[in-house]
Amino acid sequence: MFQTSIELLKFHWMAYTIYALLIISVIAWFGYNLGRKEKARSWVRIPFYGYIAFLVAGGVGHHIFTYNAIPWVAEDIMRHDIKADREYDISIERHKWKLPEEQMVANMGEKVRFNVRSRDLTYGFGLFRKDGTMVMQMQVVPKHDNDILWTFHECGTFDLTSTEYAGPRQYEKHTGEDLMLVKDALVVHCNDKFASK
Amino acid sequence: MQTVEKKPFFDQLMNGTNFDADSLSALQKVTLRAVVMSFIFFGLVALEGMIMRMVQTGPANPLPEMFSHPDHYFSIMTVHPIVGIFGSTYQLVFAAFMFLVPYLTKKPLYSVKLANFVWLCITIGTALAWIAGFIWQYAPLYTLYWPLPADTEQFSIVGGFVFVVGVALIMVGTLGFIYNIYATIFARVGVHKNKTTKELLISGFGIDGLMNLIHKLTGKPPYSKEPALSLPVVAIFRGTVDTFLDAIVILGAGILVLVYLIADAGGLSWDVHAVDSLLYKNYFWWGLDLVADGLVLIYVAGSWYLLATIITGQKLFMENVARAALLLELFVSWMVWSHHLLADQPQPEMMKLVSGEMVTAFELLTQGLALFITLVTLWKARPLKMTPELAYLLGGLVGFGLAVPAGIIQADMGLNRVLHNTQWISFAHFHIALIVGLYMTLYSALYVLWPLVTNNTKLFSKKLTWAHFWLYLIGGVGMGAFAGMAGLDGMLRRHLYVDGEFGGLMILAAIFGSMVLIAWFLFLYNIVMSVGLKGLIGIFKPANNDIASYGIEEEPEPAPAAVKA
């Protein structure tokens, strides 16, 4: 259903905003009617067991929906059995990335595996679009293997930065500039075959 | 809620309405002392929050440049949750419960001295942690990711030492609170004179509620017609179990950090990687999560039940289900921590699936049940007058109605990939949960308890109370909404943006955030004008009477001579 994280985030924005307005309205309606002497007419009558069933369905159904609608969930769980089209080994130490190439490259539709290793602190590995929205990210726990397999369903040039706090040295002392920000760290070339999908 | 004829400003400021600090019992005084400290810390945390919001609006913000320096900014971010969660929330909750347990059980508090020790410990501990940030700019943030807290290349050893001692003091105070609560609940006096420890334990864990449900389903007579403990006391008991575990974990983590800092100060260079970072994260988050998913949800559910019954004067709807739900929450709250580690790839997938996703989803059920039971209890008592305490209770329900699903959404492997560590989780989830959900519930409790704790002191202004309510509600929800939206646009939490990258949404978040701060000023003004500055000082003077209960005092044992007679 969703191809890229931006599609998912837009859907999520819409769905949660509708939910938020709904729950605020319900409590407001409820509060208004609490003070009224005449019997309130509700649009729906929710029986207790129906409500419980709704909560269970909401909790479980949410995960079932995302598992089937978001492509990277199953891929993430099964990632060790999936062969990547490209693989990049990256390391971090003292707030500095050590990238395998000045600019990593991939083609749209390819599966790329990023193996990231920290030699000191906990960091985050996050790729961002030029408008600041997040493509994906993972935590980087020191002295452990941190790998993420990602199929790029979008093309473009992406920036990299740490998405986890690892102390103030990530930033320039006076200007506050993010020193771990690597602009244009990855280029994903467009591929008409996948774009048409 | 009564209002009062206005006096000249200075007279009102000094003397308040009809508050008489000398008439307060030892229990009332210790409760009010903690409440006062809690709201002072609330003001501090609101100011800190506004400073951070304004820094994020970009270079046009009117703050001095130093606030945008990483050392300064992250030291504020480090102490912000310490002051907010421990200095303010813990104090307020502990104060309310140290008053409520004697009030609800009609028994005296086990020790007023210990209660005084608790608020002093938490106040001094919070102040020390804050000073560590302010003077030494110790800034590992509350996450304490190993080995960041012991990273002496980035942080001064003295700062770390003062910070950890401060947090340790808070935890020692917390353990004192727990001891006081349990010693009060298990004291065999008054209504519990003839109860056994087993009966009190069964009731405390909500087992009697579950047994009653099973008996009802199997057609047997009720397991317990009169539970040993009232439902709010069960919630306090249950939540305190999580508070205990949480205090032990945080204290343990603090000692570990302290060992490394002291070793470093002594010239020893111990390898911080001797402690496995992932194992440490699991241990730390298991404990820290008990604050959020155990303590807050259970205490809040118990508070809703109490407030709904006091406001309506009626029995709680489906009380046995509520008791059994508190038992269920016991298992849920201990097993959900892995949702904090969904973005950690070395974390076993099974742990993510079971603990992080599936068990966490159960919180929708437990909190949804508490919301439903509270709403039905209110509904059955219609028509009700819309008093501030009722309005605040509804505000609290809105807060959790928004924040719990926001958290469940994040606790999903698909969405976590793009929401983890963003402002979505900071604002749409836990700021809304704390500012709107928890605090509005606590304000409701405060207005319900106000006449009891202050001996019917009249509030200075009802209009100010309502102004506080609307500003606080709209400000809290608005700030959470706009900052949460910035998270969906990719804005990270625990990250410094100095160029106004998300400026538009941050300006909106700052505008709504300032409403929360103004609301706090109005609340403070209303309270100070009610109790007066003299009364405020009087709260901290020794009490004239040592009464440690609000209700029936412990029956004195008959004197031997009287027995003979």
Automatic annotation (TrEMBL), chain A:
Alphabetical list of InterPro entries matching this protein: Cupredoxin
Transmembrane spans: 13-34, 46-65
Superkingdom: Bacteria
Keywords: Membrane, Transmembrane, Transmembrane helix
Gene3D superfamilies reported for this sequence: Cupredoxins - blue copper proteins
SUPFAM superfamilies assigned: Cupredoxins (SSF49503)
Protein name (record): Cytochrome c oxidase polypeptide II
TrEMBL record, chain B:
Keyword terms, alphabetized: Electron transport, Membrane, Respiratory chain, Transmembrane, Transmembrane helix, Transport
PANTHER family assigned to the protein according to its UniProt record, in alphabetical order: CYTOCHROME C OXIDASE SUBUNIT 1 (PTHR10422)
Annotated Cytochrome oxidase subunit I profile domain residues: 28-534
UniProt xrefs under Gene3D superfamilies: Cytochrome c oxidase-like, subunit I domain (1.20.210.10)
Organism: Hydrogenimonas cancrithermarum
Higher taxonomy: Bacteria, Pseudomonadati, Campylobacterota, Epsilonproteobacteria, Campylobacterales
Residue ranges of the TM segments: 30-52, 72-105, 117-136, 156-179, 244-263, 283-308, 320-338, 358-378, 390-409, 429-453, 465-485, 505-528
The keyword Transport is assigned to this record: yes
Name this polypeptide is given: Cytochrome c oxidase subunit 1
